[in-house]
Amino acid sequence: MLRRTLLAASRSPRLERAARTAPVARSVVRRYVAGDRAGDALRVTRELCSAGLRVTIDNLGEDVTERAHAERTAHEYVALLRRIAEDGLAPWAEVSVKLSALGQKLGGNGAAPSPDGEKIALDNAARICAAAEAAGTTVTLDMEDHETVDSTLGILAQLRVDHPRTGAVIQSYLRRSEGDCLALAGPGSRVRLCKGAYDAPASAAFTRRRDIDLSYARCLRVLMNGRGHPMVATHDPRLIDLAVALAALGGRDPGTYELQMLYGVRPRAQARLAAEGQRVRVYVPYGDDWYGYLVRRLAERPANLAFFLRSLLGR
Ligand code: FAD
Predict the structure, then answer these.
(1) Is residue 296 annotated as involved in ligand binding?
(2) pLDDT of res. 89
(3) What is d(CA 125, CA 155) in angstroms, rounded to the nearest whole number?
(4) What is the pTM of this model?
(5) Where are the domains of the chain?
(6) Does residue 195 line the site of ligand 1, with CB under 6 A?
(7) Burial 20-40 (b: 16+ CB within 10 A, else e)
(8) What residues contact 182, with CB distance under 8 A and at least 6 apart?
(9) Among 3, 235, 260, 304, which is best to mutate for testing ligand 1, by the most ligand atoms less than 8 A from CB?
(10) Which of 9, 35, 145, 297 has the most Cβ atoms closer than 10 angstroms to its Cβ?
């Protein structure tokens, strides 16, 4: 119930305005977000890489309503990738991209992908993939609400024709995901498996934690037995242990899969796993459009919520 309320709040412009003007809220933001500018993300990336971790950088923002905004976002990624190359951070650093930030929902009713929007997002994403290739690194498409999955996987398939290392995210809370993993487990594929951070109806998604975890385990097994590069995105210690055990059972070397976590979440576990020889990648978001991302993090960890609400009320 609390999670659903928070996820509804993540789309409320009124609450977003309140959050943005509360100065103390910044301290919660700082835990999960590298800073407002690309330079902040690159500074954090250098620190993490020198500690033996890898990084995927996300320019925060989603659901753009103007084409010019989508073009600016693509331009920002191209410039970021140039700086990743210049700073010698490729292939340790790659980028993560939301298609709704590149225009996927433009031209329709604004709530779901539309054919015009998909074309705009595909063109923008192709520019980013070309820039990543020139920089010597990769792009992974984030997965957003359940109504975007077919559209995002369709755009992924088109991008992979010219940019076969483009990756995608699969969310284990969706009932369809084991099938999607089977379809994506072929040679060269890069699939980031997470539990899922959006609200979805019971017809499309498992709602009990145990069912989501069991689905995660099934998807993980498919990806680890496949011929692609699984990216195990979770902070859940039991699922991380399962991933490492399945990889060992399947005779996978550490470099043929990776463990991934969010910036600010279980940083000691990130360092420990890397020291144990695992390939660990940290998802580092930056930008001033942090509201939706932050509220999804609070929905995962209600213990952070009380602190955040107090900061909103200025107490
Ligand atoms: P949980 O059961 O939620 O958490 C396990 C433990 O991790 C908790 O007990 C707690 O100790 C710790 N923890 C988890 N979250 C937090 C937090 N916010 N603050 C503090 N501690 C915490 N979701 C999408 O829907 N689409 C995406 O494209 C996407 N990309 C992701 C990329 C990466 C690299 C990662 C790591 C996650 C991504 N997610 C994405 C989010 C994901 O779906 C989950 O919402 C999130 O990872 C929490 O689930 P969990 O697997 O860590 O398990």
Answers:
(1) yes
(2) 98
(3) 9
(4) 0.95
(5) 1-33+295-315, 39-289
(6) yes
(7) eebeebeebbeebbbbeebee
(8) 222
(9) 235
(10) 297
Find the helix or strand (DSSP H, E) in which 30 lies: helix 25-32
ipTM given for this complex: 0.97
DSSP 3-state assignment of 278?
A: coil
Contact assessment for residue 174 and residue 194, using Cβ atoms and an 8 Å cutoff: no
**CATH of region 39-289:** 3.20.20.220
Q: In angstroms, rounded to a whole number, what is the distance separating the alpha carbons of residues 246 and 56?
A: 24
Rounded CA-CA distance 259/240 in Å is 7
Q: What are phi and psi of 257, to 5 degrees?
A: -155, 170
- Which H helix or E strand runs over 281? strand 280-286
The neighbour count for residue 276, using CB atoms within 10 Å, is 10
**197 Cβ inside 6 Å of ligand 1:** yes
Q: Is 264 annotated as a binding residue?
A: no
| Two structure tokens written together for 180 | 């999607």
Kindly list the averaged pLDDT for each block of 10 residues, start to end, along the chain of length 315: 75 77 74 96 98 98 95 98 98 98 91 94 98 98 97 98 98 98 97 96 96 98 97 98 96 94 97 97 95 87 70 57
Kindly compute the dihedral angle of the four CA atoms of residues 248, 250, 255, 256, in this order, to the nearest 10 degrees: -150
Would you call 169 exposed, middle or buried from its count of C-beta atoms within 10 A (0-12, 13-18, 19+)? Answer: buried
